[in-house]
Each structure stands twice: as structure tokens, then as C-alpha cells.
Design brief:
Blueprint: H1 48-51, E1 55-60, E2 64-66, E3 71-72, E4 76-78, E5 92-94, E6 97-99, E7 104-116, E8 121-132, E9 135-146, E10 152-163, E11 170-177, E12 182-184, E13 194-201
Antiparallel strand pairs: 1-4, 1-13, 2-12, 3-11, 5-6, 6-11, 7-10, 7-12, 7-13, 8-9, 8-11
Length: 203
């Protein structure tokens, strides 16, 4: 497949009026862009704001004890240990509930490190839950246990979420066990329990 042809700006003079050209720093999702010709930026690329990428990652800051009742993991921070990075557009978080910045199809990846504190626990669950129509439902679930000989485990969870309403569609990571004596592991300088969000495309 051949590459798209780039037309120099001077060749558009008299053919495409300036008023018909989108700004080289155009904002995503504004009616002012409707029907406009996209201009490449100074690097020769489509402005990233028009593509509206989201690559965001959060980590649990400290250990959180796991009880027999399902609980939302809270106490997150956006990753900030160099050279970690995220896009300028990202999710917001409050009390462990994550809100998306825009609609679209998102890949959500969770990793939970479980640690045996003082007793063997046979059944530990980690769950990615998403809200739709005001109610949370489980989209991905892990199940494992820890013992004296296997004192730590890592659960990996992944799902795709079609965000159609940024007010309604939200995400949380929950944990639950059949007995007390374990924790979800956190840290402030590296990822142990973490959540990654990647916007794949608009929908």
C-alpha cells in the first residue's frame, strides 16, 4: 500500500481557503473542526490532539489489607518515577473510582500483587469492575491463594471497555478473600499493584 500524499501548504493557496483549514494545534471534538482540512504540525504529523490518544497508568501507594467483604482498592497515584510517563490527557480518580476523559474503546490492564501477612488464605479474588447505568459489574476476575511456601502471588487482569458516557461509565479494582491475613501490595516508587488505561480508538 502506498503512503498518503502530503500536499505542501503553498500548493493549497487559492484551492483551499485559510478559513477551511483546521488549526495546526486544533482541539479534539470541537464543532469548529467540522468540514475543515487537517494541517500537519511542525513535525509533519497529524496533531496528536486530533487523534486524542490516552495512555495512563496508576499504582497503589501502600499495602491495603484484604478482608472477607469486597472492597475497592484506593490510595492511587499516577506513575511519576522517571522515565515513566503518561499522555497529557488522562483519567481522573477519586476514592478508587476512575473516570474516563472521553468516549472510545479502552484497553484496561490490572496487576495485583498479593502478599501473605500472617496466615494461609486459599481464596483471594481481584476484579475489574465497570459502571454502566449506575451499577458496577465485574468484567474480569482472578482467583488464587497464598501459603507459607508461596507467600506472594501476582494476578493479571485485562478487559476492553466501550466508554459511551463519561459521566456513567467508570472503573474500579476490587479485592476480596475467604479469610483475613493478606494484603494488596503498594509502593510509591515502582509499580506493584497498578492499573493501565489505553484508548484504542473512538467509537
Amino acid at each position: 500500500m502506498s503512503s498518503p500524499t502530503k500536499v505542501p501548504a503553498n500548493m493549497t493557496s487559492g484551492v483551499v481557503k485559510n478559513s477551511d483549514k483546521a488549526s495546526k494545534t486544533a482541539s479534539f471534538g470541537t464543532s469548529a473542526n467540522s468540514g475543515k482540512v487537517i494541517q500537519l504540525n511542525s513535525s509533519g504529523n497529524i496533531p496528536s490532539t486530533l487523534l486524542n490518544p490516552v495512555a495512563d497508568q496508576f499504582r497503589l501507594l501502600s499495602n491495603q489489607a484484604i478482608g472477607t467483604s469486597e472492597a475497592t482498592l484506593s490510595g492511587w497515584e499516577r506513575v511519576d518515577t522517571a522515565p515513566q510517563g503518561t499522555t497529557s490527557t488522562g483519567l481522573t480518580q477519586s476514592n478508587g473510582i476512575f473516570t474516563f476523559p472521553s468516549t472510545g474503546l479502552y484497553l484496561v490492564i490490572a496487576e495485583i500483587q498479593f502478599l501473605r501477612d500472617n496466615t494461609n488464605v486459599d481464596q483471594i479474588y481481584g476484579r475489574i469492575q465497570a459502571q454502566t447505568s449506575g451499577a458496577m459489574q465485574t468484567l474480569a476476575e482472578s482467583f488464587l491463594g497464598v501459603t507459607g511456601t508461596v507467600p506472594g502471588e501476582l494476578a493479571g487482569l485485562t478487559t476492553l471497555i466501550n466508554v459511551t458516557d463519561t459521566t456513567d461509565n467508570k472503573v474500579q479494582l476490587t479485592v476480596q478473600a475467604d479469610a483475613t491475613g493478606t494484603s494488596a501490595v503498594g509502593a510509591s516508587d515502582r509499580n506493584k499493584t497498578c492499573l493501565t488505561f489505553l484508548r484504542i480508538t473512538g467509537t
